Amino acid sequence: MKIAVWKPELSVSVKSIDEDHQKLFDLINQLFEAMAKGKGKEIIGSAIEELEKYTIFHFNREETYFRVTNYAMGAEHSREHQIFKQKVAEFKNNLSSNSSIAPDVLTFLRDWLLNHIAKSDKAYEEHFKKFTLA
Ligand SMILES: [Fe+2]
Ligand SMILES: [Fe+2]
Asked: Please, which residues have CB less than 5 A from ligand 2, an ion?
């Protein structure tokens, strides 16, 4: 079962970013599946680590584009990224201290990401269109 589904309306018209978003959704789905199937801490832990790593990679990509295109909302947007990175880190820490984690933490991450893409990421679409970003 998939809890995170990317749809074309979420496209920001930059291929690499759309692919990153799809990859992040895939990682959330994998994590959800591992939790739903009652997989061990090790598997769930490595799935969270993968999500964390890819999140950082993706946010860095966007933040680099903000810098090179002189995006006016860059600082504000990056602060939102910071909040999400903290949430993922918290999630990871909770896992190491508890034997199980509540699935609602995962739906929170999914909702946050969906909302962030639909609002904050979508907001740079027109600005990025003025540049050749791949
Ligand atoms: Fe994004
Ligand atoms: Fe973003």
From this structure: 62, 121
Q: pLDDT by residue (tens digit) across 58-78?
A: 999 999 999 999 999 999 999
Give the residue among 134, 108, 85, 110 at the shortest CA–CA distance from 26.
110
Q: Name residues of the chain where pLDDT drops below 50.
A: none
The Å distance, Cα 37 to ligand 2 centre, comes to: 30
CATH of 13-128, one of 1.10.10.410, 1.10.357.20, 3.20.20.80, 1.20.120.50: 1.20.120.50
What per-residue confidence (pLDDT) applies to 96? 77
pLDDT of residue 101: 65
Q: Do 96 and 45 touch, CB atoms closer than 8 A? A: yes
